[in-house]
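Customer ticket, subject: "Can you confirm the structure for FadR/GntR family transcriptional regulator?"

Message body: Hello, I'm evaluating your service for our small team and ran a test protein. I'd like someone to confirm that this is what the system normally returns, since I don't have a reference to compare against.
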Amino acid sequence: MSPHSDPLADALLRPVKAGNAFEETLARLLQAIRLGLAAPGERLPAERELAARLGVSRVTLREALHALQEAGYVESRRGRYGGTFVRSIRPTHPTPPPPAFAADVEDVITLRQVLETGAAESAAARALDPTTRRHLRTRLEECTGAVVADYRRRDARLHLAVAAAAASPSLTAAVADLRARLDALLEAIPPLGANIEHSDQQHRAVVDAILDGDPAAARTAMAEHLAGTAALLRGFLT
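Agent reply: Thanks for trying us out. I re-ran your input and got the following:
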């Protein structure tokens, strides 16, 4: 990869947004690899250079590179000529994506932004009864720190609890249907520890805003959380 001489590389390896630095860093690197800016067997730029270009810390960059290595996109080599190299054999989706796969990803992302940010805002605007407040806290604590094998199921339960707190059965049903579509997409993405830790922090911000009765903060926190998942979906699946 020679990012200094390639305008496309300049476009891809630009500073990421601070709110979802890990997810966006991972998505940018994935996009660069999949578009061929780094050929199979080629070494990626040095960590110092990548971190500077993406505007992230070395820690965040290393977490993203580790996730790519775990997913099978890159490999780390030691020694004088070591570094991070693009693997010659790329991982594939568990099943071939249908022709409308990318369009479905964008459809799910858009629907989540509309439905789930609205659900969080509506829930925060209500005077929640003790049972609903307790339910939200329980779902949050179940999700926080959950092992990878259980995380997505508990994550789904938390998001549905937020929707239910808005007290609109139609909205809750719509979010449930949407979650089934989202889970089908997430099956093609490896669970990422750094993303889970970040999601835990964002989940708490969402629930805290709802329980504090702050609709604007709840909507903003949910939008930022969904943007992180959107970055991963686009990075891995489109």
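A couple of notes from the result: The chain has two domains: 3-86, 101-237. The longest strand covers residues 74-77. Feel free to reply with more questions.
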